[in-house]
Amino acid sequence: MFTPPYQYCLPDAAVADVALKALSEQFQITSEAEIAHSRIYYDSFDWRLFLGGGVLYSKPEGRKKALVWKTDERADPAETLLLGRGTPKFASDLPQGAMRDILSRLLEMRALIPQVEIKGRVRLFKVLDEEQKTVLRYSVESCASRAPGGGEYRELQQRLGLLPVRGYNAILKRVKKILEQNMGLKPCSEGLLQAALAATGRIPADYSSKLNFQFAAEERAGSAARRIHLHLLDTVERNLPGTLANLDSEFLHDLRVAVRRARSALTQIKGVFSQEAVAAFNPRLAWIGQVTGPSRDLDVYLLDYDCYRSSLPARFQADLDPLQKFLVAHRKSAYRSMVNKLKSKEFQMFIDAWRRFLNDSSVGSEGTPAADLPVKQVASKRIYRIYKRVLAERAGINDASPATAFHELRKSCKKLRYLIEFFQSLYPEARIQPLIKALKALLDNLGAFQDAEVQANKLREFAHQMVKEAEVPADTLLAMGMLVDGLLRRQQEARKDFYSCFEVFAGGQSRMEFKAIFADASGSGKKGKRAA
């Protein structure tokens, strides 16, 4: 079925007949066909395809199914792939070809998830000239949508579409004038996907793990903290079903990041909640991190496995395959244990209690020193204090420093990053973004150092564990040893790069910016002290 490049949304079904009558008074119109159709639109949970500028849907094609990729919903298909009845879960499940390459680049490790289901009928018409030549085609499409897999279909506005015929642009212009000027029809402002989602109460890109809070400088710090925590709790709960169902590794990743951010907000935005509340909830957040950690660690090793394998000379790559089997088996066991804990009554009681606390602004902040202060003052003071801690920790690092010193610095840098990202709307974007960018680069360096350290040690543990559990080919152990050597070399490279990365983040100009943006705003600078 063609996709008309010009589409008009009709306010009600009767308008389609009025339009047909208006066009019939000036042109010869004949009915061409009536076609039933259905589609299921797919995307990742975080809408990577839509945000990448395309849409993906499946449609019946005889006894099979066609998977259609479009870079613009109103354009002709960019790629179409004929499949069996099922739909691939990951881009890697597709056969080699252009569609697999495109989707792999956009989706990475994320699974394809059905987002909305559409069914409808299209009436096709031809506009003929005096010689009975087709000079224009137009369509009237009636659709309904529902959540995938069940539920009630909801009717969408009908769409009238125009498909030009080459060489007859004058006819197209005349028809558009009748529809737009005479009848007052307006071109559709959204594609079929957006309209179908809207009918089910959704919008595209209705989930993102990124932080985008908007705070007023004078907003109460306690209120701002609650907003942050409620958003992070929502993120945990939205990612929980996908984590439990093991749809893809990013559900667990986003859940864990939200928990880490919540712990940082709870302990680093000082004085907005009572000490009793912090002492009650922080250990429970830490518990979530503990019970989800082993599963996430194994996810990371499996996601990195292809890189591990390709880092070895070709003749040694197959020797690593027993490691992959070991990781897969232990991941299954770790996931089962994790799922049991995340389904436990203890976990649900914590989630319910945490939400009740956050929604009840009358508790948890009585007598706290910062809850009623302006959020910009509280945020600036805390950000600058953590920044000074980062500088102090860096001053203690030299070529002989142990890996633990870099790890502690990384933890402080993460706290600083979370705080700045929570409150970045309070500061000029042009000044805050370069600081965030430099901090992210430093964290990437520290992360590379730490990851290499942890992974090298973990691979050694895996090797001993594999020997205990079963006979392991000597070549596999040798290949794993080569990986460890490679990781330790990468760690040393990261260590060498650390000094220049830190200088970019906290050189002279950057230090002046941090002081000007945060110290003065919090009253921590000399001017603020004199005023106090």
Secondary-structure blueprint:
Layout: E1 6-10, H1 14-24, E2 28-43, H2 48-51, E3 55-61, E4 64-70, E5 79-83, H3 98-107, E6 113-128, E7 134-146, E8 154-155, E9 158-164, H4 169-182, H5 192-199, H6 221-244, H7 249-268, H8 275-303, H9 305-311, H10 314-317, H11 321-342, H12 345-359, H13 375-395, H14 403-423, H15 429-469, H16 474-506, H17 508-522, H18 526-531
Antiparallel strand pairs: 1-9, 2-3, 2-6, 3-4, 4-5, 6-7, 7-8, 7-9
Give a brief description.
The protein is an alpha+beta fold and 532 residues long. The protein has helices at 14-24, 48-51, 98-107, 169-182, 192-199, 221-244, 249-268, 275-303, 305-311, 314-317, 321-342, 345-359, 375-395, 403-423, 429-469, 474-506, 508-522, 526-531, and strands at residues 6-10, 28-43, 55-61, 64-70, 79-83, 113-128, 134-146, 154-155, 158-164.
